Amino acid sequence: MKLVSRVTGRRALLVSGVVVLLASVTLGGWLWLRDDGAAQQKEQNSFCWSLVPGRDSGESGSTAECGDALETAMTGRPPGATPPGRTSEYGTEQVRVLEETVKGYAARTKGDPGAIPEEIRRNMASVLVFYADDVHDIIGLHGDFSEGGLSTRPNDVDVDRATLTDFIRGLAEDGGAFRMVRGSQLALVSDGLQSLGKTDFEGGSDKAEGTALVSGNSLGILDRVGAQALEARDGGADREEWLEAYRNQGGRNEGAGKPEEFFASARDGGYLVEMFQRRADRLGARPEGPEGSGTGLHPEILDMLEKTYRLGF
Predict the structure, then answer these.
(1) How many CB atoms lie within 10 A of CB 145?
(2) Domain extents for the chain?
(3) Fewest CB within 10 A of the end CB: N or C in the chain?
(4) Taking each helix axis from N to C terminus, what angle separates 121-130 and 175-194, rounded to the nearest 10 degrees?
(5) With contact defined as beta carbons under 8 Å apart, do 281 and 296 qualify?
(6) How far is the C-alpha of 80 from the C-alpha of 72, rounded, in Å?
(7) What is the pLDDT of residues 76-96, one digit of tens each?
(8) What is the rounded distance in angstroms from the CA atom of residue 70 to the CA atom of residue 98?
């Protein structure tokens, strides 16, 4: 009985030791993760404040406060202000801050789309809405606007398409922020359509083809970004939360369709063709001869739309 008692006691002691060891490891791991998370938060905050003019990386304000400060530094308006109907001309310093912010965060999102802090994503999306016409040029036209030979209108923003796309991909971690950006570009596509007349659709004018090119390029790229954001969410609650945030953001009517369709892997940009078709129908456009094919769109317009939209893939 004494032997059994000793063995039992040793086993109890051993089990107790293992429990204590596991508890120590767990606590140590939790403390390490907490410290690592705090260090990461501090670094993110430091980087954000380093972009704000007149402030330094040692700024003690929160990341959310930094997002507000950055938004104001780039737009000259209070955070959350409603953008004007058309893009305004901003000062040289405001544009410089925009360029440095986009380039700085784009470099971080290449390997980690979540690198832009969630507290500032909607601030940054709002900024891109304020600069919507410049964004439209960068992602809609062919050419490198980061060099001196080409200039965006009206602010001559020196950022190339790939860099801006990476930046927008970081914002797209928030479905609502992404809709702000996409909605502003969709509005510009709609405005471009309104500038086209009946003869533009029937004859496939240079103006109509140019509108189709910019529309296909810009929405093709943005729909690819939306698809990437959805694909990163395998399903379940995370995916539904993203879609709900996108839907709830509101904004300009996007016509028939759902975000699940806009950003599907099998997307074809059919909604964009329908936008052009509806405008042509309202004008009563009907190309003569074999080019008509029973539609109000000249074949060259259709070809340009489909070709440029596919480039977004």
Answers:
(1) 22
(2) 82-311
(3) N
(4) 10
(5) yes
(6) 9
(7) 999 999 999 899 999 999 999
(8) 9
